[in-house]
Structures are given as C-alpha cells and as structure tokens.
Amino acid sequence: RDGMAQDLLSRPVSVQFENRDLETILRRIEKAAGVKFTYVPQVVEAHRKVSIRASNDRLETVLDRLLRPLNISYQVSGTYIVLRKETSGVVAPASGQVPAERLITGTVTDEKGNTIPGVSILLKGTQRGTVTNGQGAFQLAVPENDPVLVFSFVGYQTQEIAVGNQTTLSIRLVVDDKALNEVVVIGYGAVKKRDLTGSVGSIGTTELKAQPISSFNQALQGRVSGVQVTNASNAPGGGITVRVRGGNSISASNDPLYVIDGFPVTNPSSAQGAGGSANFPNVLSTINPNDIESIEVLKDASATAIYGSRGANGVVLVTTRRGKEGLSNVDFETYAGVSSISNMLQLATAEQQTALKNEQLRNLGFAERYGYTTAYPKTPAEYGVGTNWQKEIYRAAPTQSYQLSASGGTEKLRYLVSGNYFNQDGIVIANNFKRYTARMNLDARLSNRLKIGTNFLVTYSINNGINEAGTNGPVGAARVISPASPVHDASGNWQLLNVGPGSGMASIPNPVAVLRTSTNALFTTRVLGNAFADYQIAEGLSARVSLGADLLTSRRNVFYTPQTLVANTVNGYGSNGNANNINLLNENTVTYSKVLNTSHSFDVVAGVTFQSNREDRSYQEAQNFANYTLGANNLGQGSVLIAPTTTAQKWGLNSYLGRVNYRFKDRYLFTLTGRIDGSSRFGTNNKYGFFPSGAVAWRVSDEPFLKTSPLVSELKFRLSYGVTGNDGIGLYNSLSSYVTSRTVFGDTEVLTTQAATIGNPDLRWEKTGQFDAGFDLSLFTNRLQLTADYYIKTTTDLLLGIDLPATTGFTTVTRNIGSLRNRGIELGISTVNTTGAVKWTTSGNFSLNRNKVLKLADADQYLVTDPNTSVQTIVKVGQPIGSFYGRVFDGVWQSTDAVKAAGALAQTGDLGGAPRFKDVNGDGVFNNATDRAIIGNGLPKFIYGLTNTVSYRGLDLSVFIQGVQGNQVFNYTRSVTEIDPGATPLQSYINDHWKTDKPSNNRPSARQWNISNSSYLIEDGSFLRLKNVSLGYRIPLKTKALKAARIYVSGQNLFTVSRYSGYDPEVNSSFNSNTTYGIDNYAYPVSRTYTIGGTLTF
Amino acid sequence: ESCRSNLEEVPLSFLSESNSFNNADDATTAINAVYGRAKAIYQMPMIVLGDLSGDDLWIRSDADPITSEIDQFKYTASNNYFDTFYTNSYITIDRANRVIENVPKIAMDTKLRDQIVAEAKFLRALHYFNLVQAFGDVPLVTKTTTDVVNVKIPRDPAAKVYGQIIQDLQDAEKALPISYSAAAEIGRATVGAAKSILAKVYLTHKEWANAAAKAREVIDSKTYRLVPDYQDVFNPDKENGPEHIFSLQFSCLQPKYGSAMAENFAIYFSYPINQTGGAFQVTDSYANSFVAGDYRRQVAVITQKTLANGTVVQSRTGPHLDKYWDPNACGAAAARNNFLVIRYADVLLMYAEALNELNGPDAEAYNAINLVRARARKGAATGPQDLAGLTQSQFRDAVLQERSWELAGEGHRRWDLLRTGKLLEAARKQGYDPSEKYLLFPIPTFERDANPALTQNPGF
Questions:
Q1: With DSSP H G I counted as helix, E B as strand and the rest as coil, what are the percentages for chain A, rounded to 5?
Q2: Which of A279, A511, A792, A922 has the most C-beta neighbours closer than 10 Å?
Q3: What is the pTM for the complete model shown?
Q4: Contact (CB<8Å) A647/B253
C-alpha cells in the first residue's frame, strides 16, 4: 500500500498557472498525473486563487509547494489523495453570542463494513468540515441547534445525517452505481445523465457480456424499454428485427440508425446466393460485442433530431472500449458453450402419416396406397416410427470465444488493442459462424490544445449458412418430409425423393442430403475506421474534424451437388455473389461550452458532415458440372453458364447540424436541435429537408422545497417535440427505370429491354413528428428509481408501394401518401432491495405501443400479400399495420346433412369434415372473397423484461426474464402440413382431426380443404421466457502477475412459457416486410445454450 | 462542387426512360420484351383457361384444387389464374404500347421500324382478343401510362375493344414480312400470323365473309401446308415448320427458357423427377370420341408410355395427352415445346366454319375440312373419311368436333365452344351444372382491389 502511495506521489507533473482557482489547478493535476483528489471544496477554500509552476517535477514536490502555504495537508488513500485543512475541526467562534458546541466522533464504512478514509464531512450550511483519517474515523465540533452533517465520497451516494443528540456516529455509505453524474453518449457529444432532456436508454458491458451472442443488437432484447428485438433467424450470425417505439413506416425501413463510435453505418444486404440458398445474415454480426463499452438507444425526437432524415426509427449509438489513464491491463476473456434445440415438435410417425395418406385417398374416393399398391406394398404399421428427421438435423452445438485485450495509457497516449476469435456452431448440422476481429482504439494528446485519435476495426467472418426459406430449407424440410422416407436408400445413397416416386408425398428435399452435400458460405470482411483531431481553440471552444471509412465486402459461394433435389436434373448447380460497399464520412464540428455564472450555462455544437456510399454487386451462376469437388470456387467447371448480373449504386448525404443545451440554475434544462439533410435519394423536387426539435426538463428535486427531502433524491420532468425523417426508401425510387433481360427466338438467346418501374419525381422522406413527456424519479436515496415516458409519434408522407391496376403496365409504385401513429408508454424501474453483505437489485422495463394507420391515399385499405407465403395482411385506416386478413374459421361441418341444411352458408363441395368459415358480412352467403376479416396481428400488446441480480462477496447471480404479450403468430407451417397428409402433420392433428367415426370441431378431415389465409392458422404468440441465468464468482486470488479473475456459468433460453404449437412464438420470417409481422415460415428454431466462461486480468 | 454532385442521383446500372429508345437495337430489344412477356400467358395459363374449362381436358382435383375449380365450373373471382391472365396480358400490352409510341420516333431503317411497330400491334391485338373473350368488357389502354395517380380506368365495351383489335391487325398485316430467315428472328409475327388471327377475330365477331376472306388469303399465300405426319406438328425437333403460323418460342438452351406443358401433361409417375406434375389429362369422353383408326388418337392419347430406358409406365388415372412429350426436357417444368398459338390446320377449319355459316357447306368448305381429315387417317382405309352431304347444322357440329380432335390441349376449346354457343351444353355433358354467369370469367379480385372502377361480371 505504501508502495502504491509512493508510486502515485512520484509521478512526474508539468503544470503552469498564474492566479487560478485551486479547484481548476487540482483538476488539471488530476489529469496530468492520473490521480484523483478528494476534498470538501468549502473546507479547503477551493475557489482561492493561487499560482504554481512545475516542469516534470514529482507530484509530491508539486503538492508540497501548492498546498503547504494554504495549510492543506494531503494523504494517499488507495487511489485517492485526500486533502484536509490543517486547522483543528473547531473554528474560532465569531464574536458575540457563542452557540453551545459539542464534539462529534465517528467512523465511516462501506457496505461491507470496511472503513473508508478520505470521506468528506461538512456541517450543512457552513464551511466547517473535515475528512476521515486512514482508519475512516473523524471528529468534528458541531453547534447544538439541530446540526446536519453531509457525508460525501466519490463513487458513493451522498448522505445527510441529522445528528440529534448523538455524539458518536457510525455511517455506512452506499455505492452509487447509477450515479447521476454518469455520462450518457448522445449524438455528437455526451451529457451527464442529470442534464439529459431526451429519452435515452442504455446498456453497458454487464448486459452485453452475460449472454453468448453473435451480434450486439441481440443484447438489447428485453433490456431497454421501448425497444423490441425479435430474432428473424436463430442461426448464428442470423438476422434480427429491432423496433424502437414501434414501426413508423409501411414500406421504408423501420430499422434504427446504427452509429458506431460516431460513424453512422449502413447495413447493405449481403452478397446474393443461388436460388434455394436464402438466409438472413446480420450485417452487424461483423462487430464484436465484446469490444463494446456501452450502447445507447436514442428514442425521442429531442435525442434523435441530430440525425435528421435518418432519426425517425431511433438511433443506436455504440461506443467501443477505449484505454484509460493509469496502469495497463491485459485481459483474457473466454467462454465455451453448448446449444441445443429448446423444443422438439411432436410429429406424426411414419405409420400415422402413411395411414393418414390412405385415409385422405379414401376420403377423396381414390384407391388407398400404402399396403395396397405394388409400388408401396408396406402397410402403415410396417413403416413403424420411421425416420426422426428432427434428430437427424439438430445437434448439440458448441460455441467458443477467446479475447485478448490490452489497454491502458498515460496522459499523452491511451490505447486499447484487442483480438477476438468467435466460433459458434448452429444447432442444425453443417451450420456454423466464425469471426475474427481485431480492434485498435488510440487517443493521443499532442499538446494541451490538440488531441488526435483513431478507432479501427478489422473483421473477417465466415457464415456457413443454411437455406432458411420454406420447405426447401432444412428446417422446413425436416418439419414436412415424411418419416416414412429414409435418410439413405437401399443402396446407401442419399434418398432423393420424399419416400419415392408416386408416393403422394410432397416434393421435399432430403434435408440431411442437402446439409451434407451442399455449400452455402458467406465470407464477410469489414474494415471500419476513423481518425479524428480535436483542437481547443479557446477556453470552452474546440473544433473536431473526423474522417472515416467503412469498407464492407461480402462474397457468397453456393453449390449443390446432384444429390440434392434442386440440382439433380441440372447436374450440379453453383453460384458466386459479391457485394462491395464503400461508405465514406467526413464530419466537422465545433463545440462551445460556457458557464456564465451560477445561473447560466451553455453547451453548443454545430457541424457540417458529408457522407457518400457506393455499392457494387455481382452475381454469376453455373450448372452442369463435370466434377463437384471444386464447387462454387470454380464456376468455369460448369458447362451451362448463366449470364452474370452486376449492379452499381450510389447515394450521398450532405448535412448541417446544430444543438444548443442551455441550463438555467442547473434546474431548468433546454435543448434545441436542428439538422438540414440534403439527400440524393429524394426526388428532384424535394432534395433538402429540415428536422428540428426542442426539449425542456425541470429538475424538481433541486428546487429548494425538495432539495432536503429525505424521500425524493431525484425528480426530473422532461418534455420534447421534434420532427425527424426516414430516408430508408431504397435508391433511385424516384426515377423510372428500364431493365435488360433475355428471351429466346428459336434456340437463339436475344436481349430484351423493358420498363421496370414508373418514376415519381415528388418522392421525399417520410416525416415523423414525435411528442414525448416523461419523468425520472429516485426515492429513498436512490433505492428506487423510476423512469417513465409517454410518446406520440405521427408519421406523415408515408411511402407506400401502391398496387397499380395492371392496365398501367406495372403492379406497384412508391408514393408519399398516408400517415400513421404510434403511441406508447415506457417504464423502467430499478430497485436496490437489500444492501450489505447480500446485495440484491432488480431492474425491469415495460413497453406498450399502439400502432394505428391514420390515413391512406385513394382508398381506405390495401391488401398486402407476403411473397414467400401468400399470407395476406391488410393496411387499413384505423387499424394497426400488418393485421392478418382472411377468413374466419368457425369449426368443422359435422355432416353432409349439416352442409345441406346450411345452404349458401356452406361452400360448393363441402361435406362432413370440411372446415366451416364465418359469413362475416352476414348476407347469408359464404363467399371466399367478401367474407374476410381482420383475424390477428403480429404486434404485441406489451413487452417486458426483468433482471434480478444478487451478489454476495465474490459471487454474483443474475436472472433475466423477458416476455411478449398479446400478439398473434400466423403459423404458415400448418397451412402446409394440415392441408395434405403428403406433408407431415403434428401429432396433435393426428389425434384431433375429423373422422366419420371420431368427429372433431377443431381440425377438418384429411382431404384437401382450402385453409390458407384463415384464422385456422392464427395462434397466440405471447410468451414469457427465462432468457438468461448467470452465476459468476470473483476468485479472491491476487498474485504479482494476476490482478483479478472471474469465472461464470450461464444458461440462455432456459425455458419458455407459450401456447404456440410451432418451435417458438418469437418468430418473424418475413422480417424485411413491415406489413407482415409474425409469420412462421419454418423459421430457424431457438436454442438453449449453457456457457462457462472466465476473465483473467493481468 | 463535389458537394453538390454528392446529391445528384445518376443511375449507374440501369437505363432511364430517356435513353431507352435511341437506335434500332433499342427498338429490337423493346419488341423482344413484348414477346418475352407474352410467354407468361402462352403456357399453362392459356391451357388452364382455354382447355380446362372446355370438355377435352380435366385435372385431378387432389393435385390442384384451385385449378380444379376452373375445370369444374366452380371458379370465383379470387382464383389466381384469372389474375395471372389479366395482369400479364396488360403488362404485355403496355410493353407493346411503349414500342408503338416510341419506336416511330427513332431514326432508323424505316422498313424495320414499321415492321417492329406492326409486330407490337399484332401482339397487342392478340392479347386484347384474349381479354375480351375471357372477361367481356375490359379497359382499352393504347398509350403508355405516365401518371401514377389517375390510373383507375373503367371497362370499355367489348365492341370498342374489338374495333381496336381489328384496326391493329389490319395495320400489322400491311407491314409484317412473309417470313424470317435469321436465327434470332425465328418465331416473330408474320403477315400470315396477322391474317390468321384476324380471321379468327372476324369469326368470333360473326363477320363470316371477312373471316372466310382472311382465311382464304392465308391459304392462297401458299406459305403454309399441313405436315404429312400429325406427330411432327408437336415434335420439339421440328418446330417452326411449314404448318406453324405463329408460336411462342421455348427452348432448352437454358432451363429457364423451357416450357411447362411437358411436365404438366406427362403420364403420372413418369416424368424424370416429377411427383407433383402430370395432373392435366384428357377426359375419358374425349379419348372415346375418336372414330376407329384416327391417327391423332394414336399420337395424342395414351394410357401407357415406354420411356427411353425401356421402362413401361402405366397411367393409373386414365388417358393422358401426349402432344407435349419431350424426351430431351431440361428440367422440372422446363421442356422445349413451343406454344402453338395458331397453325395451318386451324386456319383450314376456320375457313370451313366461316363458309358454312355464310353459305352452308359448299365444296370449298368440304375441301378444307377434308384436308385435315385426310391427314388424320394417314392413308389408311379406316379412320375419319371425307365428309359429304351434311346439312349446315351437321357441318357446324362436324367442324366443332374436328377442332376438338385436331386441336385439343392447344388452348382453343373454351373459345371454340363459346363462339358456337355450346359451352354450357358441353359442360353439362361433363356432369357439371354451370349457370349462365360462367360464360365469362370474373374480373380478378386483386385487380378490383387495386382499381375500384372495375365492375364485376354478373353473378360473381
């Protein structure tokens, strides 16, 4: 400990001040020497003006020179240097009536009972005070008239104690882990949380590290109120839907803007793959979650308006870790885990399915097949259980991550260098995601005025994906393929056809053959770097210039051998796709901070930024391969070469931005923000847009009437309004276009040129006006903290792909019509339940969003047909977007007599066992076209998350529950498996479908009833999930080499409470669409993961 | 200034409207696109609408219940096939409109320019002819749409649409060539194609004299003749032969250029890998309608097939149509068969039909139908013999029957039955009981959602 003190005191310091207040000088020394002072400003009279000059002198010498004359002594306590006035605690009383005084003694400890030296103690309302000594003890003379002592120490909550009649005090300080002085990153700057006027949610490393995730945006799931995160794919590195305060848009992007270390990144789609290779990679999986220090989500317009035409969907700011001044650390972090499917479905056995096929043929009046034909002489019973395809393709899949990072710094140079290797196997065989990342963040102080720095990231990832689309993908195929079909045929080759020719089974590829014999690899390289320089022009005024580039290249190789159904007739089938995205950014900002006097202070930022992007894509495909070993690495081996396609596109954005933060008496906070964006995306008639916002906040708790309240430690009201835009409309949408393709005359290929889109020069950004009212409340000395917000967002000039009558020659056009509204409530609560040896805290969040279409252009509704599933949704005034639209299932016709009796209420051809649909319009006639209604919606009524953490000595336990309530899922998988027994149904269908001798009102008979687009397929999507439980232990060993060690075990997705009949209710297969939310088109299932990990700090 | 250029939106990899019609090559690629899109209809959609809702073909309802609704006269406006047919017709028409509007402005060889415009008019007329027969009144659009707001176009009377069809075909026959020789032009519209389609339009419109005259012009041109062997009409190796007046071109140059008929008509269990195809079949009544010795039955109707590897495949579900068998198909739903829009046998039968309506069965009428029948008996003593001594009404029935034997599965039957007023009667003979409303197809629901100005046909 003495060695530590000696180390601190011998650090070299250079400072030079003439007639400056002591506080400023001390602050500068703190920075220069990397130390922290603790003192009571009133006691040491920190406002006094002094002069000091030191040039590479030892800190001890400098402090002696500075403080001796002021009668201030110092003492090193841990990493702090405690300053104390060297008079006795008793101040000579002024003349006149002397109030009676007495001497108070006491000790100050932390929650664990350890004494704290250097705690400052001030007699409230006076300049009298003292500091605890090395043993945490103090003594102070106080007057008799109800003295109040204020105990404060950095990192702990300040406590005020009414002394009363006591003469000895035992004070226990509580760690202030959510200190209001915590700095929150906002766009183009950072503010103290206490000064925040907008609605900003944030998560830190704790939340990021607790889970074995491949992409950082997964960490937002259930953690931040107002933010809904849905996995579009549960494959490693798979896509994610993130919605901040609901979806604002119908056809433009609803994704938030991601800003990584100040760089607004784009997320272009990955390189193209051949047909039947569709998967949903997450471009943000190129960022290593382990490198991230914090993620802030800007939600209201006050916070997002600084991002102008890109702010409407919220902004996610990612701040990566940087080196800190002080000792250098080397951290080694690793974890390993194993994942397995969280829920296997109970599917029909081979016996049941073949029997069901026979039953269907019988129902249709055809001859039965299994056991009755020469091609299929085996009876259903002889097929037995058959192949368990789920067991064939799902596995226990390991994950591993290794990270080595070094960080540290001096006053001149701070650094963080890290390298990470992440390897996650998917729970589907052959599915794997690997990532190599290296990061270097540097900050250098070249002079007192000039700072430069850089953030630099290099990533290479390989995503061995699987086809995730429909029944041709392994997940869908394994779900639908007959259990009567073997993996291998009698001669040991892969079984090509589902059961065999003429089996009556759906044409489904053998999923094991597809996985084992085909390639679907996505290689992604990302280099994201920027360099900046900060120059202090004058006191409070500085300028910053940054230059950055985000280079993102992806290549996709796809190859199918003839052992798969898709390539069987073409003798091998392969493709290469390349996508190359270059994003360049230059930002020039000026910031000015001024404190006029105790009443007025300003922070101003203004800037000009330029961003441009170019994307080049190419794609080629070949068939009929002489040899399959080289696959897509050598397409020239194919003898049928399909004409390649290439595209190039560019966009540019020129912006002017400004923000003023004004604080009056530190209690009344005002923020004005504006940004002008000029964007190449918009039509010639609308190039520039202006996006302003304003906010006020009132820190009621700093008003005199609340300041001393023992109940309320913090109360702030916030109010904001602003307009932001959404430019996520794709490129060149305002222009009409002609495209080239090909056709044949005779056997000669010829070019064709045809109109592809119809132009619209009036096209412009969507505009979202957002009002937000909220408050932050802390009670019982921060034991209970509550943040609540209410918002209304109205989006106008909605971009809609309007169905055009075919007579125009087109089927759709994009126009700015319509408006919609999102309204919602967000609550965030955190409590400190117990302190002391066992510390238990709870934090929870709750979000409720209501979406409503207010206006559409020429009609009051549009139908949207999902291209992958043909599921229909409706966009209708007065309704939330994406309501499922279709027929209302109303049980099963129990007999042909009942059908006859119903007359026109039944459909032609209905008989006993047919599904019955409601005559919605009540005209006495059932009509498939007119008797349709809204039958559900994929948007939840509310979402929530709850985290409990308990710590005891070195142990910490965290339990995280997350849930979604009140949404519906369109289970498209059942529309395939319950229309024809050629696709394997669920066990529940076998047990519950209508038969002559065993009627049912839930499931129709096995025939071929048309059940598509009906409420028959709508299911409750609500769920509650034990998302994560983790238990960590800080090993109390300290050696010369090892500073700290921690190990932990965690479980992810441990259990889910849901009534959904598919793999998982958290599903959104058509995640690129804003209007079809919650369709299950054989989505990659959720996995349960157990992880063990550790961190060593050297 | 780089700042300003940052905001300019210049397309890098696609053409804009302004630079798409600059030279002769542009005119050629634009007309190619019209043919390209026409193939969206002249494939299974034309067979579903044209043949399935007649009495020659049926589809197994277990294979495709939606399509079966058309076969069984139970269709509703939401049936996808109507939307496919309607939408693709109008997109093809729009492409033709663009050629008709823009190509005349191009400085290029005037003969080629006029020919390309004539091809576009021919294709536009062909699609409007399909539309009026299918739906009755339809919107008549002859200009490129540029406005995205005022697009709710109501239906025009069928008579007005027929007027435009006849005008377009009359324009087309003036500028189209007799034939093409370059490989990249095989299959484009000729003067014979325009005259043949015009003859059919007149026939449908009951302008008997005009119909007979146009058919006569085609016959007298001596450009076309019946190929001696009926099988060669359908042989993928003998496409674009002397009998083929106009066919949409399909090829196995690449599977994507192939046609889907082969798979859909193949004997069940037979085609290379299909498990779902092969659902289209001929009805038993059709198979049994032939007189003994008719070579066309031998060619077109089968109940078993010997594959190249010697395997004999038996049909389990009755007779199949074998016209589209392609032993060298290149993939699922991809074979070499062209779609035969009109061929010489059709013209001969139209000529006989028109003459009979005009004057009763005269010698020329007998001659025309007997040419077709003579080929069908292939020189044998049995089979369809030359007709003689029929009343006008008997002759009318004989032509309709002959068309069925000759042209089944080529997309004609419904229109033939409609034209002769026999559709409902034929449907009843098949055991269905359609009401009058089934004489028209319904305007597709999807289109009426997009365009509320469209009225629905009665009863739908």
A1: 15, 50, 35
A2: A511
A3: 0.75
A4: no
